[in-house]
Design goal:
The complex is a heterodimer of chains A (about 260) and B (about 240). With about 260 residues, chain A is of the alpha/beta class. Chain A has two domains: about 160 residues, P-loop containing nucleotide triphosphate hydrolases (Rossmann fold); about 70 residues, no CATH class. Chain A is about 35% helix and about 25% strand. In chain A, strands 6-7-8-3-9-10 form a six-stranded mixed β-sheet, sandwiched between helices. Chain A has a four-stranded antiparallel β-sheet with strand order 2-1-4-5, covered by helices on one side. The N terminus of chain A is likely disordered. Chain B has about 240 residues and is an all-alpha fold. Chain B has a single domain, classed as MetI-like fold (Orthogonal Bundle). Chain B contains eleven helices and no strands. In chain B, helix 2 packs antiparallel against helix 10, helix 3 packs across helix 7 and helix 10 runs antiparallel to helix 11. Chain B is flat and about 75 Å long. The N and C termini of chain B lie far apart (about 55 Å). The mean pLDDT of chain B is about 90. The chains are: A alpha/beta (about 260), B mainly alpha (about 240).
Chain lengths: ~260, ~240
């Protein structure tokens, strides 16, 4: 288990400056055909902020973070990441995407590559690292997530929790400035949720800017500075976790919390 | 009937001595013909599959039309169309400097086989590319991989595992279909068989041919099994 893993050396992330705006979203609207997924979303994320997004299924939370990573393109509104307008300049947008790491619900590891190769592919082909440098970096992060000894295995030989930790290490190998998590524990067996959340908590301690779609409310309480509650494509609540959990403002958030907190 | 008589019905040493070397040559010609056209067909087929899946309507339609034509008409007809049809435009080919190509049965056969198998392989590749999970494309995008890296390092290796079975099938069909090359003066395995039979009138010649085709197919089958195991080593 990762509980035994110490983070004696912190992950090498520069000290975050909370005055810096890293993501600035204004008037974002997105449709899937007739379905209006995101309605007039405004969101500002500062450096080092840890934001949990929650809300009922279909509320647009995944779509929102996928828009930040350009996996989805919104019809209206603007997204600026590190002052780069994603819609304006294709090349600059591609550049800024490489500063964003993403972890998916279903891991999306490359099944035909070993754990190590999964982690070295992008640093070598995008960042231009030599194999040796890339492997060194990969082993460093695999060590951080507690699976360095599985580096030679294929993803299918690992448990779900281990695969998700590899996926986190793979994203970190690009040394991103922002990490996006799209329900990182939703596809896991219950006993594997903890080992992944453990890694996320440690990552949060390094000052990484994180946006995490999750329904792990304990995690939200422990780690998040802001909880965003989405419903019907709108941000209904945006408040610190204590305020959100103890005193939700909207009826919808109250209903939602009653459903998921037993 | 003694054992020697029986043996002579199937493997007559005299016949074997006379036609054996020709059969070896024929075997090599068949092997070369299929190997070259199948390989070129794979490259063309992959490009056609990509064209069929491209965003451009024009490319999609052109590729679809090509595949429709070459899958929808007999290989024999395509070969004759190339060799006798295009071959009859002698002065035109001489003008454009391609007569050396179209007067040669070997080149025409190679071309016909390549164009034909490309159509089938395109459909195999298209299906196998569609079989790769969309999450793989997303992960590659999220890692900012270039499109070429995504295709060659992430997508193609996974789709080949799906494609290898049908590709093997197509290869085996090609080996057997290559016998029609003998109809345009090529001395492939079938060509030498017909020649040997027309001189000896001994039916065992056809038996040899059948066994030799079987042998090639068996070699291919075993190699494919080997390749399949290698490509899918992460699945064990």
């Amino acid at each position: 288990m990762t509980a035994s893993l110490s983070l004696a050396t912190p992950l090498p992330v520069a000290q975050p400056d909370p005055r810096n705006v890293v993501v600035n979203i204004q008037g974002l609207n997105k449709y899937y055909g007739e379905f209006h997924v995101l309605r007039d979303i405004d969101l500002t994320v500062h450096e080092g902020e840890r934001i949990v997004l929650c809300g009922p299924s279909g509320s647009g939370k995944s779509t929102l973070i996928r828009c930040i990573n350009q996996l989805e393109v919104a019809e209206k509104g603007s997204i600026r990441v590190y002052d780069t307008d994603l819609a304006a300049n294709h090349r600059a947008a591609a550049q800024v995407r490489s500063e964003i790491g993403m972890v998916f619900q279903h891991f999306n590891l490359f099944p035909h590559m070993s754990v190590l190769d999964n982690c070295t592919l992008a640093p070598m082909s995008v960042r231009g690292l030599s194999r040796q440098e890339a492997e060194e970096r990969a082993r460093f992060y695999l060590n951080k997530v507690g699976i360095e000894n599985q580096a030679g295995k294929y993803p299918s030989q690992l448990s779900g929790g281990q695969q998700q930790r590899v996926a986190i290490a793979r994203a970190l190998c690009m040394k991103p400035k922002i990490m996006l998590f799209d329900e990182p524990t939703s596809a896991l067996d219950p006993e594997m949720v903890a080992e992944v959340l453990d890694v996320l908590v440690k990552l949060a301690d390094t000052g990484m800017t994180m946006l995490c779609v999750t329904h792990e409310m304990g995690f939200a309480r422990q780690v998040a500075q802001r909880v965003l509650f989405l419903d019907g494509g709108q941000v209904i609540e945006d408040s610190p976790p204590e305020a959100f959990f103890n005193n939700p403002q909207s009826a919808r958030a109250k209903g939602f919390l009653a459903q998921i907190l037993h | 009937m003694t054992f020697d008589d029986l043996l002579a019905m199937f493997v007559n040493p005299e016949l074997l001595e006379r036609y054996g070397p020709r059969f070896v040559d024929g075997l090599l010609v068949t092997g070369k013909l299929v190997a070259i056209s199948f390989t070129l067909g794979a490259v063309l087929g992959l490009l056609l599959a990509l064209a069929r899946m491209s965003k451009s309507q024009l490319l999609q339609r052109l590729a679809a039309g090509y595949i429709y034509f070459f899958r929808g008409s007999p290989l024999l007809a395509q070969l004759f169309l190339l060799y006798y049809g295009l071959g009859s435009l002698k002065s035109f080919w001489q003008d454009v400097g391609l007569w050396w190509f179209f007067r040669d049965a070997w080149f025409c056969t190679l071309l016909a086989f390549t164009l034909n198998t490309a159509a089938y392989q395109a459909e195999i590749f298209r299906g196998s590319l569609l079989a790769v999970a969309p999450g793989q494309y997303e992960a590659a995008k999220a890692l900012s991989l270039k499109r070429s890296t995504t295709f060659f390092k992430v997508i193609l290796p996974q789709s080949l595992i799906v494609a290898i079975g049908p590709l093997g099938n197509e290869l085996i069909l090609m080996i057997k279909a290559s016998a029609i090359a003998s109809l345009v003066t090529i001395y492939d395995l079938m060509g030498v068989t017909k020649l040997a039979f027309s001189r000896s009138f001994d039916f065992q010649i056809y038996l040899w041919a059948a066994v030799l085709y079987l042998l090639i197919v068996e070699i291919v089958r075993r190699s494919l099994k080997h390749i399949e195991a290698r490509l899918g080593r992460h699945l064990r």
